[in-house]
Amino acid sequence: MTKIHNLGFPRIGAKRELKFALESYWNGESSRNELETFGKQLRRRHWQAQSGLDWVPVGDFAFYDQVLDMSFTLGNLPERVRDFHGDALDNYFRVARGRSAQSAPEAAACCSGVAAGEMTKWFDTNYHYIVPEFTAATEFKLDASRLLEQLAEAKAQGIAAKPVIIGPVTYLWLGKAKDDSYKLALLPKLLPVYAELLEALANAGVEWVQIDEPILVTELDAVWQNAFHTAYQHLSDCQVKLLLATYFGQLAENLGLAANLPVAGLHVDAINGRDDVEALIAQWPADKVLSLGVINGRNIWKTDLNAVLDSLEPIAQLLGERLWLAPSCSLLHVPVDLDNEQKLDAEIKSWLAFAKQKLGELRVLATALNQGRDAVKAELDANRAAIEARRNSARVNNPAVKAALADITPQLGQRNSPYAERALKQAALLKLPKFPTTTIGSFPQTSEIRLARSQFKSGKLDETSYKAAMRAEIARSVREQEALGLDVFVHGEAERNDMVEYFGEQLAGYAFSQAGWVQSYGSRCVKPPILFGDISRPHAMTVEWIAYAQSLTDKPMKGMLTGPVTILNWSFVRDDQPRSVTCKQLALAIRQEVLDLEQAGIGVIQIDEAALREGLPLRKSQWQDYLDWAVESFRITANGVADETQIHTHMCYSEFNDIIAAIADMDADAITIETSRSDMELLDAFEHFNYPNGIGPGVYDIHSPNIPSEQHMVALMQKAAERIPVEQLWVNPDCGLKTRQWDEVIPSLTHMVAAAKTLRATL
Ligand code: GLN
Ligand code: ZN
């Protein structure tokens, strides 16, 4: 009998219930007890949704983040909160979210202000975890209470519970040594605590424990590989069976290591690591479970169940009892329930599966393997029909787009002249001062703007009134920019809900869910648009707004677009063609918008690539291939313009060292980046590379309500000027201003413009 299980269920709730419960608790609108009770209800509901599985994950629920939960389980609280007394859950939220200094009596009762834990991307997903903090002196101490409580809850409900924990090697790898000590040196101190944890679980009657070690799909040096031997040797005499879980990629050179560790079973991602499966089966030990993740936990498409069965049936023959099936990874990365989608086009909906539906697919697979395909004939036939309908749909396939893609030549991504020549022509035309000032695109999204947009969407506001409202907002931002004395203006992005959704809504080939929420971090969720078909642009998307904005001023108005790579990386995309192909389709569509803006007299066009770095593959050996097509896509988008047209790009992140060559290869006339918090250190990468084009290192940290002073910004720019020739420098904020208030933005930008003037006079 083939067994089925799940690695993790989305905890945020089908309607983001956990988000609202958390926020109400944080705002003091509900009690601690209400929050706990709500957590219990949600867990019960989610376990019920997983009924029929042989093993159901327990411990995958977290009020904020599963890595932070693990830190608490291991007693590894950041030093700065260790003397906190008071309630454990409140301390947990303090570590997660930070807390400003409190009033004296409150501080005396518990704890003073504290900085939030650092957050970073969970492998190549859009989920972010709280980074564990270490020092050479870190000690661990087991607190299994949370896990044991949830286990007891599950047991009381008759759930076949399989606790889920993060493995010791991955846990260390995820963290950061605050004192630059060697974090792997903590392993000998960590392992006894894991052994204790497993013993506690065994005592609670647990049979299997899922121990996640996803770093096995990354490139590991010998020391880290060795740590796996040490760790699992140490844990090999525990009284529970360990299912070592890997996901998100291929084991590749770590395959032998993973397959031979002394554990009772191994889960692999049979979607992204499909190429491992044959080799694993060939050497699979007789006494071990092999769990194949055959349902994609990273996308929203139905699985081709008949095709999966074709490949699974011989494997099931061979492995018998030893074969388990599961989604490729935790379902944390997909929305909960497709049944909640009432507005989604019926045809497109018939191609999709969210978390609940994916578990339904798993049940069908198990029944087909265990009882024969006839036992689920109706389901398999319906699945085949859906897969074929999608494959052949005229809405997916647009021959004109495929033809345009086939016609791409290297010339398409090539500017007419090199940067130095373009820069002269642009300077003659734009007549910008030294240290030109600009902003990144958005201005504050006031409640009036949001209201107008949502009323227009729901039909309460007619198009004429909506457009009038947006134009008024654009006019306001132009007036403000005139008064501030900025050099290159923006229209402010009032009409945009989101930098990807706005374009997705206007491109053919995109669909939108109502409740397709995915947790990004803590209570924050994103609702990625669904890119289902060949991409085309039926009409201009931004020209009307930008041209209107330009008509109000003599200053250059920057056209504002989102780039193809960012649109790709922040969408659920097709699984029926390579990402590179989808990206180039997006590039061709946005290229048309660039050319239309130029046609309309817009002389400066910014193409945001905020998510370019996010798309880097997990393995460095695959980076170049990604960067090649990502950069080519950007170049196709941007480089059809005349020399006189100035192309900007914008990226808000802090690591450029390893991708600087690719950034230079994009050949934008100016790039604006996020630097204010790094004290300009990340300009080092640009300096060492002799980056030749314009750069605007952000001098205003837009994530903070603080109003930066003129001196502060001058000082930052002076540091920049130590690294980059002043002719190349722009003065601008770190990112868009949409989350700020006008009363913060006006003084900050006033100081910024003054700083630029000071710099012009002194440098
Ligand atoms: N143009 C966008 C804005 O200003 C850029 C946002 C981003 O980089 N995340 O809002
Ligand atoms: Zn940004």
Beginning-to-end CA distance, first to last residue:
76 Å
Q: What spatial order of strands do you see in the largest sheet?
A: 1-12-11-10-9-8-6-2
Number of strands: 21
Ions, cofactors and other ligands present here are:
glutamine, zinc ion
Largest sheet: 8 strands, parallel
The total of helices stands at 28
The radius of gyration computed from the alpha-carbon positions, rounded to a whole number of angstroms, is: 27 Å
Assembly state of the chains shown = single chain
Average pLDDT: 96
Question: How do the strands and helices of this protein lay out in sequence?
Answer:
Layout: E1 3-4, H1 17-26, H2 32-49, E2 56-58, H3 66-73, H4 88-97, H5 104-109, E3 119-121, E4 128-130, E5 133-134, H6 145-156, E6 161-166, H7 168-174, E7 176-177, H8 187-203, E8 208-212, H9 222-234, E9 241-245, H10 255-260, E10 265-269, H11 274-282, E11 289-295, H12 305-319, E12 323-327, H13 346-349, H14 355-371, H15 377-392, H16 399-406, H17 419-430, H18 447-457, H19 463-484, H20 501-504, E13 508-511, E14 518-521, E15 524-526, E16 530-536, H21 543-551, E17 558-562, H22 564-569, H23 579-599, E18 604-608, H24 623-638, E19 646-651, H25 660-666, E20 670-673, H26 683-688, E21 694-697, H27 710-723, H28 742-762
Parallel strand pairs: 1-12, 2-6, 5-7, 6-8, 8-9, 9-10, 10-11, 11-12, 17-18, 18-19, 19-20, 20-21
Antiparallel strand pairs: 3-4, 13-16, 14-15
Characterization of this structure:
L-methionine binds at residues 440-442, 493, 608. Catalyzes the transfer of a methyl group from 5-methyltetrahydrofolate to homocysteine resulting in methionine formation. The model has no long low-confidence stretch (mean pLDDT 96). The strands form six sheets. The protein has an eight-stranded parallel β-sheet. A five-stranded parallel β-sheet has the order 17-18-19-20-21. It has 763 residues and is an alpha/beta fold. The relative contact order is 0.08. The chain has 28 helices and 21 strands. 43% of the residues lie in helices and 12% in strands. Helix 12 (305-319) links the parallel strand 11 and strand 12 (323-327). The structure holds glutamine and zinc ion.
